[in-house]
């Protein structure tokens, strides 16, 4: 009788603890580069940048040490490219609740952009349009698939079409972040196509 050894994960498959660690580091970066830099003693510059060495020191001092290699891994593998590195500095690509000017140039949007949400928000959206809430801008996706993934984070997704071309023609300003997310101050209800 032969004995078959248990299946082993392939050498190329990432180990679950590493995946969990990557997610933890990513969430930590989001929290402190978008929302609460002061919580760990960081000061972002006017455009949201902070020195990487200062970030690493601050994280270690506040009991969440990680290495430059871990940070580089998070930046390189994040599917949404949430972070940008320029030289020895890092910043969140968008999504800030703290006052920063990303210094993005105005951009002409495609005819339509998309916004992923959930059904419970539709009544307010019908009445008020899309507002940035506690963020600096409304975030819009370039395609339905991305908007579906965004909406699915909060439940069963509903995808809204935004007549970005018409908004732009009447003077609304759009920006596009380094990771392809479109930003605008607000979307009035008349520029939205909502499900019935």
Features:
2 domains, alpha+beta, three-stranded antiparallel beta sheet, 196 residues, Arc Repressor Mutant, subunit A, ADP-ribosylation fold, 9 strands
Give the helix/strand layout:
Elements: H1 16-35, E1 50-51, H2 52-61, H3 68-77, E2 83-86, E3 89-92, E4 113-118, H4 122-128, E5 138-140, H5 144-152, E6 157-162, H6 164-169, E7 174-176, E8 182-184, E9 192-193
Antiparallel strand pairs: 1-3, 2-3, 4-6, 5-8, 6-9, 7-8
Helix pairs in contact: 1-3
What is the compact description of this entry?
With 196 residues, the protein is α+β, with helices and mostly antiparallel strands.
Structure commentary:
With 196 residues, the chain is an alpha+beta fold. The chain folds into two domains: 16-92, RNA 2'-phosphotransferase, Tpt1/KptA family, N-terminal domain (Arc Repressor Mutant, subunit A, Orthogonal Bundle); 113-193, Alpha-Beta Barrel (ADP-ribosylation fold), CATH 3.20.170. Helix content is 32%, strand content 17%. The chain contains six helices and nine strands; from the N terminus they run αβααβββαβαβαβββ. It has helices spanning 16-35, 52-61, 68-77, 122-128, 144-152, 164-169; strands at 50-51, 83-86, 89-92, 113-118, 138-140, 157-162, 174-176, 182-184, 192-193. The strands form three sheets. It has a three-stranded antiparallel beta sheet with strand order 1-3-2. It has a three-stranded antiparallel beta sheet with strand order 4-6-9. Strand 7 (174-176) and strand 8 form a beta hairpin. Helix 1 packs across helix 3. The protein is globular. The N and C termini lie far apart (65 Å). The relative contact order is 0.14. The model is unreliable at 1-17 (pLDDT under 50).
């Amino acid at each position: 009788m032969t004995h078959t050894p248990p299946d082993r994960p392939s050498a190329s498959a990432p180990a679950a603890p590493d995946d969990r660690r990557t997610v933890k580091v990513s969430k930590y970066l989001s929290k402190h580069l978008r929302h609460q830099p002061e919580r760990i003693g960081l000061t972002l510059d006017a455009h949201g940048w902070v020195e990487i060495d200062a970030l690493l020191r601050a994280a270690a001092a506040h009991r969440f040490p990680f290495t430059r290699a871990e940070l580089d891994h998070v930046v390189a593998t994040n599917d949404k490219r949430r972070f940008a590195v320029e030289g020895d500095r890092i910043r969140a690509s968008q999504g800030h609740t703290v006052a920063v000017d990303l210094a993005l140039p105005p951009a002409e949007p495609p005819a339509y952009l998309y916004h992923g949400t959930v059904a419970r928000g539709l009544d307010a959206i019908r009445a008020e349009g899309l507002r940035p809430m506690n963020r600096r801008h409304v975030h819009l996706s370039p395609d339905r698939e991305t908007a579906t993934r965004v909406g699915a984070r909060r439940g069963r997704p509903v995808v809204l079409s935004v007549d970005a071309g018409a908004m732009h023609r009447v003077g609304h300003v759009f920006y596009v972040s380094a990771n392809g997310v479109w930003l605008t101050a607000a979307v009035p209800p008349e520029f939205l196509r909502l499900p019935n």
